[in-house]
Amino acid sequence: MLTNKKFLIGYKLAIGQLGLSAIVTEIVVLINRGRFNPVNFFSYFTIESNILICVAFFLDVWMLAGGGAKSTANFVARLRYISLS
């Protein structure tokens, strides 16, 4: 059971970091091109939803690492809420 928990923590941490790195990479590319406008960038729904999903993954990792028993149920509930909003 502990191996599965470690796998879930690693998997969710990797997915969260991948999403966050994609957002940071896009910001760096836009800054290098001289086209970065924070208001425009953060007003796109896809950017906002990606940030929320990254936060959901990091929160779930934190809850799993802390021994949260209801972590998976809370995680699924957060993702459903994000996908419906």
Short description:
This protein has 85 residues and is an all-alpha fold. It has four helices and no strands.
Could you describe the 3D structure shown?
- The protein is an all-alpha fold.
- The chain has one domain.
- Helices cover 84% and strands 0% of the residues.
- The protein contains four helices and no strands.
- Helix 3 (45-65) runs antiparallel to helix 4.
- The mean pLDDT is 84.
Mean pLDDT rating:
84
What does the oligomeric state look like here? single chain
Radius of gyration: 15 Å
Number of helices: 4
- What's the SSE pattern? HHHH
End-to-end span in angstroms? 34 Å
Structural class: mainly alpha
Number of strands: 0
Beta strand %: under 5%
Which parts are unreliable, with pLDDT below 50 for 5 consecutive residues or more?
Answer: none
Structural domains: how many:
1
Q: Which descriptor suits the 3D outline?
A: elongated
- Binned, the helix content reads over 70%
Largest pleated sheet: none
